[in-house]
Design brief:
14 strands; 6% strand; 43 helices; mainly alpha
């Protein structure tokens, strides 16, 4: 007669034939047997075995290898094909409950529940002790892989549930003194699990240790507040209040011999489960140096206490069927299905979680109430931004609102070693966690999804799906009935889930500066952070306020307590632009490794664009600029940018504008340096410079039609310049690209694109001057001068010197301004550029005006008019005539001034040129005011102000017109209106940082509130 074969999965995967252990072969062969045994009599298709062993990337020989493993297992077990049977394209292990320790464990725990309800607490405890004695260490030991890791975690949750039930019964039996030690170990291993802490408090109280019980509660309250930002659950609070007032009813022990009473812990634990925070379930992907708990130490200690040292292998366990039922429990006619524990799988919260209050409030508002439809919330953000930490923190905060269970599943969408979890496998995992026996699960994915929707009907369950790859991985897992919440984290945006399935997106950005400081404070302590506030600020910014980078930096500082934080800040600053300072042996805490998981999921074209974007100096980039950089069409580039946004490797903070944080830029720079050749980089830089030069030139020509022109070379193939249709759009483009243009010019000069540098400076000069951006104007022109000097091109040098004259003049450095403009006049005369020479004489007049040489200024305007000739540009003529009128008025020749200005006004009105009209009307107002015609002056100034405001973008001209209008209002005896006008002008100049702000402020201060002064009219 053949000896019976028995199997074990609650420990090392093993098999015995009689008393002899069977050699099951290498780990992958053992894994095949483990998967078959975990099905507990259900069919396992070959493709599911392949998925379990190799994930989503099996070798071509996978199916053949599976069949070979099954053949070898049959031979090793010495059976005649009756034990591992082939059923179509599937296998099934036919084992009696007594032949598999997992089946015996389920049956024993199932028998414990009716015994407890019938009052046979001793019998229930015997069943649970026997069930726990079957465990010989961590489940599925010796078998590796994603599938077995998920199942290992589920089995561990079953063990903890049985241990909880046993300890609750022991408290009801009065064994509180003996249980205190075990409970203390469990609490140390699961500090946020209120189930074990509640039992420990009760045990301590019954041992006469009321103060220790209250301290246990205080510790829980502090931990929950610090880690999760929540209060203890109502059940724990009620127990605390009863212990605090010395409730004698808590000391009553139900004992044995009758049904459990209301005072018994085991009778109330099902109700308590709906109030408590879910137990800790740490999975490999969530373990970082900051999330490790004492579980790995405490579990071994619990196992030593809970499992007798003489625990024997399955071959020595009496079959469950042969165990007589307790006399107090009537034997049912058919086996009774076990009472399923409420799943509580949420991992422990991240130590040091800070901030995100606005996002937490927004997320909590999405939780369905009552019969509201189930909701799905997609938490997105770039790698390392803390999506999983946020999701767990939020889930644990709202866990009491889902009394029917909280499920957690890592879908491994972006995993360095494992393949993404297939939807069918995820469905099986969720269904088994909800208590559906594996043998009852269908094979078809659609049938599994329908079964999940059925099981969830009528329940309030929270499902946290971490690290999802795409919408297709999530969609089959969504509940159909009301009341459930699905939280999804992903590096991808999962736009299809939002558009088709009504999911609500919740995007996480990097931390604020204050939140970054709070994170360091939580990790390093208040005293250390307060001692070096400047170093803390630098660390936060050098880490780009990315939570993962801050956590790595904090861990480094925590390891070097003798070092000042300034040393860490210096180290990070020295490595700025590199990720070397954020490396870690644990890939989950290594910034470079974490970013790589998103990068390697990109298409080749999107990966190339990501590498090239680092050549753009930022702070953000438009679609046409990105297309030019890559040498692609805008439609193709838009698609690639959407892929990068989808992967959270770039962000779209405004429509059509794309940006990324410094650590992503550093990562892209590393990739670019390792893959792109010098010719490719040079060509990309040239296309980028061409894009901004030709776009800026087109905008400058629209905004200043009178200005002399420069000649540009044709753009490189693949360049997509911006299309400007109106001066307003051109000005808006300059405003949007202002910071980018300064950075691009600097990059062009630094990389030898000297022609681009000086010509781009020419393009931005008018806009920057018109906006009063004197500092940016000076910076760009001085950089351009270096390029022009290297070129030795007199035309380039002439244009840049003329621009610098304007910048220095506005900055009140008139000596430097005069030197630059005189050098420009000399060079323009040398090359014979008459239009530029004309404009330069006009500009020299402005410098001479500031120096007080009004006759000289008038003379150079006459020279400009002579150079223009009778057929010159009409708009430039109106400007020169207005200048002649202005200088006549400054010299006290106001009636002559009005004659010049009248001609200029006629020319400007004919062109409906608001900008020129504003300046001409300002000159007319000045002359009218000094002739004593204050009402006419007010009319001129008010129209000038309206013209400036209509054209926009000339705040300095607006401010000076306000001051002139104030003078005329004061002359009319209207001091209050004058003060209001001056105050508005001061605000504008102060906002610009204009050097005239001080003088105008003094003028306002000198105007007494009750004054009624008249300005001189002469």
């Amino acid at each position: 007669m053949r000896e019976q074969v028995r199997f074990a999965v609650l420990g090392p995967v093993s098999a015995w034939r009689g008393a002899v252990e069977v050699d099951l072969g290498p780990p992958r062969q053992r894994a095949v047997l483990a998967v078959l045994l975990l099905a507990e009599g259900g069919r396992v298709p070959v493709d599911r075995l392949v998925d379990a062993l190799w994930g989503a990337a099996p070798p071509a020989s996978a199916v053949g290898s599976v069949r070979t493993y099954v053949h070898r297992l049959r031979r090793a077990l010495g059976e005649d094909a009756a034990l591992i049977r082939s059923v179509g394209d599937a296998y099934v292990v036919r084992a009696l409950p007594g032949d598999l320790d997992l089946a015996a464990f389920r049956e024993l725990t199932a028998r414990a529940e009716p015994a407890r309800r019938a009052g046979d607490l001793h019998g229930a405890a015997v069943h649970l002790r026997d069930a726990l004695a079957l465990w010989r260490g961590p489940a599925l030991s010796g078998v590796r892989g994603e599938f077995t890791q998920v199942r290992r975690e589920q089995l561990e949750a079953l063990r903890l549930s049985a241990l909880e039930s046993l300890l609750a019964i022991r408290l009801d039996l009065g064994e509180h003194a003996e249980a205190v030690t075990e409970l203390a170990v469990l609490v140390a291993g699961h500090p946020l699990d209120e189930r074990f802490r509640e039992m420990l408090m009760l045990a301590l109280y019954r041992c006469g240790r009321q103060s220790a019980a209250l301290e246990t509660y205080a510790e829980a309250r502090t931990l929950l507040a610090e880690e999760l930002g929540v209060d203890p659950a109502p059940a724990l609070q009620r127990l605390y209040e009863r212990i605090l007032r010395g409730d004698g009813d808590l000391l009553a022990v139900p004992g044995d011999g009758g049904p459990a009473t209301a005072n018994s812990h085991s009778a109330t634990r099902d109700t308590v489960a709906s109030d408590t925070v879910a137990p800790d379930t740490v999975t490999p992907d969530t373990v970082t140096p900051d999330t490790v708990t004492p579980d790995t130490v405490a579990r071994d200690a619990v196992a030593r206490d809970a499992v007798p040292p003489h625990a024997v292998p399955p071959h020595a366990v009496t079959p469950v069927e042969a165990t007589p039922a307790p006399s107090a429990t009537p034997q049912p006619a058919s086996p009774q299905r076990p009472s399923r524990p409420v799943p509580a799988q949420l991992p422990s919260g991240l130590h040091g979680f800070v901030g995100r209050e606005a996002q937490l409030d927004l997320a909590s508002a999405l939780v369905p109430e009552g019969d509201a439809p189930s909701a799905t919330v997609v938490i997105g953000g770039t790698a390392g931004v803390g999506k999983t930490a946020f999701a767990i923190h939020w889930a644990r905060r709202i866990a009491p609102r889902f009394p029917d269970g909280q499920l957690y599943l890592n879908l491994r969408g972006f995993d360095p070693v494992g393949a993404p979890v297939p939807p069918a496998q995820a469905l099986r995992t969720l269904l088994e966690a909800l208590g559906v026996p594996p043998r009852e699960l269908p094979e078809d994915q659609d049938a599994l999804a329908a079964r999940l929707r059925t099981v969830l009907t009528g329940r309030r369950v929270l499902i946290l799906l971490d690290n999802a790859r795409d919408a297709g991985q999530i969609r089959p897992l969504l509940p159909g009935a009301p009341g459930c919440l699905v939280i999804v984290t992903s590096r991808n945006r999962l736009g299809g889930l939002v558009a088709v399935d009504g999911a609500r997106p919740l995007r996480l950005d990097v931390l604020t500066a204050r939140e970054g400081r709070d994170l360091l404070l939580r990790r390093l302590g208040a005293e250390r952070v307060a001692a070096e506030p400047e170093a803390v600020r630098e660390i936060v910014e050098l880490c780009a306020r990315l939570p993962l980078a801050l956590a790595v930096a904090a861990a480094r500082a925590a390891d070097r307590t003798a070092f000042p934080l300034a040393a860490l800040a210096d180290e990070l600053a020295e490595g700025h632009g590199s990720l070397d300072a954020f490396t870690d042996a644990d890939q989950a805490a290594d910034v470079r490794a974490v970013l790589s998981w998103s990068y390697h999921a990109l298409s080749p074209a999107a990966a190339r664009l990501f590498r090239l974007l680092v050549l753009h100096p930022g702070p953000d980039v438009s679609l046409p600029a990105a297309a030019s950089l890559a040498g692609l069409g805008t439609a193709a580039t838009r698609s690639l940018l959407a892929e990068l946004v989808h992967a959270h490797l770039v962000d779209e903070p405004a429509p059509g504008r794309y940006a990324w944080h410094d650590l992503l830029r550093a990562y892209a720079a590393e990739l670019s340096a390792g893959t792109a050749g010098p010719d490719e980089i040079t060509a990309a830089r040239r296309r980028m410079a061409d894009h901004y030069l030709h776009s800026a030139y087109a905008a400058a020509r629209l905004m200043d039609l009178t200005r002399d022109r420069i000649v540009l070379a044709d753009p490189s193939p693949g360049v997509r310049s911006e299309a400007h249709t109106t001066p307003q759009r051109a000005m808006a483009w300059f405003g949007t690209e202002r910071a980018v243009l300064v950075a691009v010019l600097r990059e062009a000069s630094a990389h030898g694109f000297d022609v681009h540098a000086w010509q781009l400076a020419w393009c931005v000069e008018h806009h920057f001057g018109r906006q009063g951006l004197w500092h940016e104007l000076g910076v760009t022109l001085r950089t351009a001068l270096e390029s022009a000097d290297r070129l030795g091109d007199p035309t380039a040098l002439a244009h840049i010197h003329r621009g610098l004259a304007q910048a220095e003049s506005y900055a009140k450095r008139t000596g430097d301004a005069r030197a630059h403009i005189e050098r420009a006049i000399e060079l323009f005369a040398k090359v014979g550029d008459v239009p530029a020479l004309t404009e330069s004489h006009r500009q020299l007049s402005v410098v001479l005006e500031v120096q007080g040489d009004l006759e000289g200024a008038l003379d150079h305007h006459r020279q400009a008019l002579e150079l223009l000739g009778p057929d010159g540009d009409g708009r430039l003529r109106s400007w020169i005539l207005n200048g002649l009128g202005w200088y006549h008025s400054l010299l006290g020749r106001h009636r002559e001034a009005l004659e010049f200005c009248a001609t200029a006004l006629e020319l400007a009105r004919a062109r409906d040129d608001d900008y020129t009209l504003g300046h001409v009307l300002n000159s007319i107002g000045h002359a009218r005011h000094h002739l004593g015609a204050h009402d006419e002056a007010v009319a001129a100034f008010e129209e000038a102000l309206a013209r400036f405001r209509h054209v926009g973008g000339v705040p300095w001209a607006e401010a000076h017109t306000l001051a002139s209008l104030a003078d005329s209002r004061l002359a009319l005896g209207q001091p209050d209106r004058a003060r209001a006008l001056l105050a508005e002008g001061v605000r504008i100049l102060e906002r610009l940082g204009h050097p005239d702000a001080g003088a105008m402020r003094e003028k306002l201060a000198a105007l007494a509130p009750d004054g009624d002064r008249a300005a001189p009219s002469g």
